[in-house]
Amino acid sequence: MAGSELPQAAHNGRNSLRPTQPGNGHVDEAALVAQARDGDLPAFEYLVAIYRRRLFRLAYRMLRDRGDAEDVVQDTLTAGWRVLPTLNREEAFGGWVYRTATNRCLDVLRHRTSHPQVLPGADPLADAIAAFTARDPDRESDPHHTAEVAAELQALRRALALLPADQRACWLLREIHGQSYAEIGAALRITPSAVRGRLARAREHLSTAMVQWR
To answer: What 8-state DSSP symbol labels residue 213?
Structure first.
């Protein structure tokens, strides 16, 4: 997100601290959030760089429309700048952006009147193909195998599109984004036990839809 797209922030004029990066290369997001809460716009832009792709993957899989997904991400991250001063803990920022993006996606879906359909644009599971071939590069050049993988992922994409929005959100947040039951419940404003129920129904539907690929 370019700085001009953000609300104007009061910058305190001091040099931004570099994010802590332990030996494993992990960025200290809590430190970045703390800096951003003090009005450090570059620190917030670093957070945007971290979360933009993650949120786009979630929003595109939910909405199946690139423009709508980009709008959700833009609105969520812009709102994130405004909400920073209200967060009690630095670690709460990640949960807040996932929760907000998920609810914005659900709002978009509620306002749609058309039936689920496969929309043009990039394959929302393209990163799954890349991850698969990266694990087994020798098979990447096998046309038959590549076609099989593409067909299976296409079937999964269609099956996900037919899930009710809340079940799709639960499945994506759990299986793709690794959220806990409590985090998913907070995002959807439901209890962890309700999350488990929706996940069970989503998995049952997907298992039935993907039976030929077992």
So the answer is: G
Q: Are 138 and 157 in contact (CB under 8 A)?
A: no
Q: What single string gives the DSSP state of each residue in 72-108?
A: HHHHHHHHHHHHGGG-SSTTHHHHHHHHHHHHHHHHH
* Digit-coded pLDDT (tens) for 183-195: 999 888 899 999 9
CB burial of residue 132 (10 Å; 0-12, 13-18, 19+): middle
Structure tokens at 202: 């989503």
What is the Cα–Cα distance from 205 to 16, expressed in whole angstroms?
49
Torsions phi, psi for 124 (to 5 deg): -65, -15
End-to-end CA distance of the chain: 41
What is the pTM assigned to this prediction?
0.64
Contact 2, 77 (CB under 8 A): no
Q: Are 212 and 187 in contact (CB under 8 A)?
A: no
